[in-house]
Design goal:
The complex is a heterodimer of chains A (470) and B (116). Chain A has 17 helices and six strands. Chain A is of the alpha/beta class and 470 residues long. In chain A, strands 3-2-1-4-5-6 form a six-stranded parallel beta sheet. By secondary structure, chain B is mainly alpha-helical. Classes of the chains: A alpha/beta (470), B mainly alpha (116).
Chain lengths: 470, 116
Amino acid sequence: MSGYFIESAYLLAASLFIFSLHWMSDPKTARRSVIAGSIGMLVAVLATWARPEVTRHLWIIVPVAMAIGPGIWLALVPLTAVPQRTALSHAFGGLAAGLVGTAKFIFWFDSEPEMLTPFRTGAIVAEVILGYLTCTGSLIAAAKLQEVKWIPQRPWTYRGQKFVNLGALAAALLLGVLLVLNPTASWAPWAFAGIVFLSLNFGWMLVMPIGGADMPTVIAILNAYAGLAAVAMGFVLDNRLLITAGALDGSSGLILSIIMCRAMNRSFFNVLFGAFGQVQQTGAAGEQKQYRSESAENAAQILEQANLVVIVPGYGMAVAQAQHKVRELYDQLRRRGVTVKFAVHPVAGRMPGHMNVLLAEAEIPYSDLIEMEEINPEMPQCDVCLVIGANDVVNPAARSDPKSPIYGMPIIDADKARTVFAIKRSRNPGFAGIDNELYFSDRTWMLFGDAKAVVGEVARALGDGGRAGH
Amino acid sequence: MLSLLIAEAAAPDDPVRRHMDIAAMAFVFVLATFIGVGVIRRVSRLLHTPLMSLTNAISAIAVVGAIIIAGDDHYPTYVRVLGAIALFASMTNIVSGFLITQRMLKMFKTQRESAR
C-alpha cells in the first residue's frame, strides 16, 4: 500500500510544480509560485524519506542540515550577483545528477549486473554526460560572471578549438555507445571513468571561449542541460516525478535560450562555437571620431524640459549598482510631470530578466518596465533617451551595417529619439568590442563616468533646480 | 482494477512490463515537456530571472534520487557517500532557490504599492 501512497505524493508534487510555474505568468500571482513549489518539494522529500528501504536516517539528516547554511547564504547575495548564483546552482544540480548516476552504475555493476539493461545504461550515460558537463561548464560561467582573476573575461580561443571540443564530446558519446552494447564487460568501469573524465573536461572547454555578453544564452542553455540531466535520472531510477520536474526545467531552459538567441539574431551553434569578442578592426580605422560630452547640470536642464524620457539600462548599471540612483532620477522627473519609461532589451545584463529585477529592487513599478518590441514604435516621440551602461543593444549598426558582427540583432531604437544622453564608464569600445555609431551621432551627448555617480549628479542637479524654482 | 495493478506489480521482471514502463516514462516525458513549454511561454518577461531561480529549485528534485541512495542500507558505504554529496548539493539548491525567488518576487511592485 505504501507504494500507492508514495506515487500519489509524487503526483501531488508534480501538480504543484506545474501550478507554481503557471502562476509566474503575472507578477500579481507570482508570490504564490514559491509557496506551491516549496510545498511540492516538501511533499516529494518526505514521501521519498518515508520509503521503506530508506533506513539510514542520519545519512539524510546530516547532509540536509549541512546544506541549510550555504543555501541561505546563497539566497542573500546582492541582486547584482544573481547571475553568478544562478550559474553556481546549475553547477550543483549537474553535480548531483552526475553523482547519482555514478553511484547507480557502480552499485549495479558490482552487485546487480542484470539491472544494467541497454536502456538503463543508456540513460545513465546521458545523465552522467549532461550532469558533469553542466557542472564544470557552470562553474566556469560563474567564475567569469564573478570576474575571478584567473579566468579571462574575453573569450579564450585557439586554433582548432572547435575540433578539440567536439572531439571530446564525440569520444564520450562513442564510449557511451560501447558501454550500452557491453554494460557488464570487464572493461566497462574504465569506459565509464573515461566518460566522466571527458564530460567534466568538455564542460569547461565549452564555456571558456564564450564572452560575457553571451552569458544570458549560456546560462539558459546550461539550465536546459541541468533539467535534461534530471530527466535522464528519472529514466534510470524509474521515477516519474523526476522526469516531470526535469522536463519542466528543461523546457524552461530551452524557451529562455530561444528567446535569448532570437534577441541576438544568432543560432545555438553560433553562440556555443562562434566566440566573438575580438575587437573589430573594420570600419572607422582611419578617421578619428570625436565624442561630444556634456555636463550633468546641462543634461538635467534638458531632461527637465522633456515630456517623455526613455531610460535604456544595461550591464553598466548593474556593475555600478546604480539602480537606486536611477530611482531618485525617476522620482525627480516624475515630480516635474515628465513621463519616464524603461526600455528593457531581452539580453541586457548577464542573464534573462536581469535588468527587471534590479529596477524592481529600486522599487520602480513594473508597469514602467517596457519590452523592446513595445517601446520601439514610441521612440520617435521620445524627447530624451538616457542610455545607462548599455552598448550593443542600442547600436544602430545592427540595422545598417551588414559587416558588423551584430548585424540583424533587434535593438532598441535609441537613435530615433530627439536627444540621446549616453552614460559610459570609459572611452573604450563595449564588451563585444564593437564601435557604436550612436555615440558619434549629432543628437548624442556623452556623460563619461561611473553610472552611479553620473546619475546621482543629474538627480541632484534636478533637485537643486527644483528648489530654486519654487 | 486495483487487483490487476497489484498483480502486475508482483511480477516486476516480466519483460512485457519493462517495455510498458519505458513507454510510460517516455509518455510522461513528452507530455511534461509540452506542459512545460505551454506554461513557460506565458511567463512574464519581467520575471525571467526569478523563473530561472524557481526552476533551479524545482530541478533540485534530484534530491529524490540522492535520498534513495544515501539512505538505503543495500548500498555499500562508498556509494552512499556519493549519494550524500548529491543530497547536500541538491538541498542547497532547494533552500537557496526558493528563498531567493521569494526575495526577488517581493520586489515587483505596482504603481500604487511603490508610491511611498
